[in-house]
Amino acid sequence: MSPLKGRSILLVTSNEIYKNYISDLLRIWGCSLYFFEKIDDALMFVASEKPNLTALIVPLKHKGTAGEQIAKLICDEIGKSVPWICMQVGSSSCDQVVPSHQASAVLGTMFTPEELYAEIARLQT
Question: Does the global pTM surpass 0.85?
Fold first, then answer.
């Protein structure tokens, strides 16, 4: 049995490759995944369901909104702080600053299953 079994994670991304990759890994590890392409849909979901999330996984930037802002909006809507993992999606750029001081973890563009697993496992529930 995976130590991650039962963890609940919300993912925001419009990248199908990352969505499928992360979804498959979390399913194998026994995690619940809530996936949203649109920030507004994620906010409506958390406002109505108030899920007990273990973590958020958000990109550095999603449709013009910084990952840090996405995490703040979701946490504000839930009414509690939730650790979040920032993932760099696509080609990295020197002018993109990863908010590592705000994120619980930062995943590079080509992260391995082991890296994702380790970052989720170390988050406190």
Answer: yes
